[in-house]
Amino acid sequence: MTKGHNAYHEKHAREMGLNFRQWKEAASALLNDEARESYLDWYNEKENKYYRYEKKTARLAVGTQNGSISTFFILQKALRKYYLPNEYLELAEGK
Q1: Which region among 22-26, 47-51, 89-93 has the lowest average model confidence (pLDDT)?
Q2: Please, what is the Cα angle at 34 between 73 and 7, to 5 degrees?
Q3: Distance between CA atoms of residues 95 and 44, nearest Å
Q4: Under 8 Å CB-to-CB from 69, ≥6 apart: which residues?
């Protein structure tokens, strides 16, 4: 991680009401949790990244197989079409 990249993550942490340590722990917990109906999961082969969207909280976590957190934030409804695969857009509404 670079200082600039950490600043980007710290911004998301503040938006979520978390400190940076809590943000990392919450992102890791979400990404490492077992698959559930309340999650939408997919893998982007081009980026080699795993995505998990939690329908109830609208939290989106992105990470790599080696455990790096690419990002973690609350995905605003208006931005879902840019982040979620088309087949998940309707499913994202579920609680």
Answers
A1: 89-93
A2: 25
A3: 24
A4: 9, 24, 27, 28, 31, 61, 62, 63
Mean pLDDT, the chain, rounded, equals 90
Strand partners, 41: 52
How many angstroms separate the CA atoms of 79 and 73, rounded? Answer: 12
Side-chain-side CA neighbours of 20 within 13 Å: the count stands at 8
Return the percentage of the chain with pLDDT > 70, whole number: 92
Burial of residue 58, with CB atoms counted within 10 A of its CB: 0-12 exposed, 13-18 middle, 19 or more buried: middle
Distance of CA 56 to the CA centre of its chain: 13
d(CA 28, CA 50): 12
